[in-house]
Amino acid sequence: MKGQKMANYAAVAGILGGALAIGGGLYARSVEAVFGIPQFFGIYSEYLSGVHVLVGIGAVMVLGGLISFKWPSVGGVIVCSAAIIGLIYTYDRGQYRWSPMVYYWWGPWLLAWIAGIFAGYAAYKNVPQSNEKLADARHAEGHSG
Amino acid sequence: MTEMLRNEGLKRVRMRLITAVVFVFTLTCSGAFGMEDVVSSSGPGLTLLMILILPFLWSVPMAFVASELGSMVPEAGGLYRWIRRGMGEYWSFQAGWWWTLSLYVDSAVYVALALDYMEARWGFSGGTRAIIGVAIIAIFTFINIRGLDLTGWALTIIQVGVMVPLVIFSVWGIIAGSGNPFSPVMPEGESFLSSMQLGLAIMMWMYSGWESISTLAGEIENPQKVIPKALMIGTPIVIATYFFSVWAAIRVARLDGPDNWLNMWTGGGGVDFVEAAQILGGGVLAYLMLLSAILSNVGLYAGYLATGARPQFQMSRDRLLPKFLGLTHKSWGTPWAAILLMAAVNAVLINFNFSALITIDVFLLMFPYVLIFLTVMVLRVKEPDAPRPFRVPMPTWLLGVWVAIPIAIAVIALFVNGVDWMIGGLAGILTGPIAYLVFKNLYKGTTDEALEGSVVTPQGELTDFGAAVEGVEA
Question: A95 forms bridges with which residues in the sheet?
């Protein structure tokens, strides 16, 4: 695979991002950080506390990172999607959990973005571009408009 | 030497310089509605100073850079193709994606703002609001699909309607208003930084859009010459429009008390341009100003529907988005599918309270802007001798210093404009890599050699369809 080096970087970044989120969650638990009511989009559960979400999303990011070694596109999508969900979680029905959570999500977000960039470069190298001129292809298909 | 193809199916129109200037004015200014909030946030003096100074740090560099890149790579999709040439497929997709995503929301905001002005005056029901909104979108979707010549005429008529009341107000207000418009410089008790921070986001927003007209380059004859000229002419017009109308508004607000500038805001209850016109000239001028505000937002919608649709069209032609977005109208030569999709999303969005989404779009725009500034430097180094009918008149190192300023402003703005702005933007940024990974695997992309595009000759002319030029790398 031509883009294996990039895939490796993507995997490492994803794993580090996930580890950072998990570590942040465990640290937040130890210092009893206050993240507000444990709910997400109106669903209430103790598993939706800030600590649980950090650890849970972090685990998904680590999984995405591991998958990136073999399938960087799939892994990159998982890592970035997980980070998006984590960011959305910081909204809390108009009350932002952002301030207390910023220290915990900043690193994972940045590493998820880096993982996405490397996964993108891996995809660029692995997926062969079409060399057929589009006009020729469109004529061959019998339509031009 | 590389052979390139013009975008098949697109029709180039002969756009007069005045029409191109109207396009630029619409996309970057379209009146001064929204500046009221800066006055009460940052203070009258600082607002006027920012209007005069910020362009040279923020929008003039973009206007010059857009002129150079637009003359060098005058292709449909504009900034998307510049960045592809300078930084490759991945980053161009990111820029095109973020820019398009931002404009999907942004263009719907303009319709919503026009409806807000109407509703405040005429007070109609939610159903009527939706019908009027969809009607506005439908009319300008048709005009856009019909072609840039008709869109240009529509924007010209709209901007006459915007500017006539605003010019009357500005002249009258400066003469008949009261007080020194520069005093106080800042709100009492605020520091310079905190005052500037409050108004910076709005001001940056008001001075954005210089890159937008470049996306239309595939449908304009001689875009490499017309667009840079229009940008150079449009820049001082925009600065003057903001400066004199805000100057007048501050003096008019003070007719109701020396501290009445503190009540200058939009969104009801404050002294906005319509209320200021009421204070100055009574009902008739206020009515004209209301029409100006409505037309301003409608014009912005029409303009951004046109420019917002083109990068996704070109990305589709480059096999990085679904194929249907690359369809062109057989008779009118416009990317009708991309325009129609954007309009359909707008029609849905105007029916919801999407204030959270609005916060994302400014943040998302900052990243393509940074990439544009980096691209001009990369291309100066990588392709120093490539034909540039317009070249920023400074050596590369000095250009680097100059563009470092707006890059720094963009980066600072990411952190100082509020948490909701930031968090929404951070999530939006991550959609870029996801979209690339999905669409790249689905559609593969196109090699540089097979791209549809244009080649600029050393004489500054565009080649004919499929022609190759000796000594010019595309």
Answer: A92
Neighbours of B180 (CB within 10 A): 12
Confidence band for A4, pLDDT divided at 50, 70 and 90: very high
- Residues in chain B, overall count: 474
How many separate domains does chain A show? Answer: 1
Among B75, B83, B415, B423, the residue to mutate for chain A (most A Cβ within 10 A):
B423
Residue A145 inside a domain? The answer is no
> Is residue A57 situated within a structural domain?
yes
- Any chain A CB within 8 A of the CB of B329? yes
Contact present, A53 and A89 (Cβ < 8 Å): yes
Q: Give CA B127 to chain center in angstroms.
A: 30
CB contact under 8 A, B90 and A124: yes
Q: Is B446 within 8 Å of chain A by CB? A: yes
Q: Are A141 and B454 in contact (CB under 8 A)?
A: no
Q: Which domain holds residue A46?
A: 4-140
- What is the ipTM score, two decimals? 0.90
Stated pTM of the model:
0.90
Residue A97 inside a domain? The answer is: yes
Give the pLDDT confidence score for residue B67 in this predicted structure: 92
| Domain covering B17-443: architecture | Up-down Bundle (1.20)
Mean residue pLDDT of chain B comes to: 89
